[in-house]
Amino acid sequence: MVSEEEIIAGCKQGKASSQEKLYQLYSRRMMAVCVRYTRSRFEAEDIFHDAFVKVFKYLDTYNGGSFEGWMRRIFVNTAINHYHKNRKFEDQLDYSSVEESTPSTEDIISQISGQELMNIINQLPEGYRLVFNLYVVEGFNHREIAEALHVAEGTSKSQLAKAKASLQKILLKQSMSEAC
Predict the structure, then answer these.
(1) Which of 52, 69, 75, 128 has the fewest CB within 10 Å, making it most exposed?
(2) Residue ranges of the domains in the chain?
(3) pLDDT per residue over 6-31, tens digit each?
């Protein structure tokens, strides 16, 4: 079995077999990243292919650490760039005083599958979904999100608060319909 380091070294040398192995090793996980940031499979595939081209183009800049983390950052940044080119926030009001709150409802999330949760998150408006993914899934802080999306930090906070409120409504509605 070829190690990740050997695959990366082969890619840096331009070996097509190593590039194919790298693609096979990470394609499913990176496609999942792309799907989280888009509304359609077509958009996700566009981002996916653009990001993989960037991975191979900038592979010489990788200098250790988590390779998957390095790659993931390229995919997330490519998704953000795609967003900037193709969409605007639906609601960019600056609510800098919005507080983050955790709903006190029972844990409905533990009762649904990962795919169901992804489908629910995909129901969010574009701006909410983007901020939610960056904050909750990728671990960005509001300052980083604001810089990446070219918005005020308060906008990031308000988009996250609205995303959480929307998710709560969707989840409660879903749990009520299942209870009936």
Answers:
(1) 69
(2) 4-86, 109-179
(3) 999 999 999 999 999 999 999 999 99
